[in-house]
Design brief:
This protein has about 140 residues and is α+β, with helices and mostly antiparallel strands. It has 4 helices and 6 strands; from the N terminus they run E-H-E-E-H-E-H-E-E-H. The chain is globular.
Length: about 140
């Protein structure tokens, strides 16, 4: 198991762009994904200065993702096996001292690649966003 792209992950500019889009200007973010030799799945942990209370931050995440079919804010730190073979992104919002710690688990072959493409296709062509993406999770 290992962390990679510690010096700057290729998706970090996208994350910062989207955070600025929701008003998080001046945010200093640390984004470190971790790889484990397994068939599928990725776990990412982001650290940033906590502004306000943890309850407020958790509420903001819950509100932002309410009604989203494939992003679920969960109470426990997610494990990749819980997202495996699905289009789900499982997000946990916690804190350690004055740092917010947001962890996300997804199946990098589904949500990270093919499932995301199908979801975008569905939206672009007027289909229900979840068409062909809601199946029974197959684990292990």
């Amino acid at each position: 198991m290992g962390a990679y792209a510690i010096g700057g992950h290729r998706h970090l500019p996208e994350v910062v762009q989207e955070l600025k889009g929701v008003g998080a200007n001046g945010l200093r973010l640390t984004f470190v994904p971790h790889l484990v030799p397994m068939t599928r799945g990725i776990l990412a942990t982001c650290y940033f200065d906590l502004k306000g209370s943890l309850d407020e931050l958790q509420g903001a995440y819950a509100e932002f993702y309410a009604g989203q079919p494939f992003t679920k804010v969960v109470l426990q730190t997610p494990a990749t096996k819980l997202a495996s073979h699905s289009n789900l992104c499982l997000v946990n919002v916690s804190a350690q001292g004055g740092k917010a710690v947001v962890t996300a688990a997804l199946d990098n072959l589904m949500k990270g690649a093919s499932g995301q493409g199908v979801e975008c296709f569905n939206i672009a062509f007027g289909f229900d966003r979840a068409t062909a993406l809601e199946s029974v999770v197959q684990w292990p």
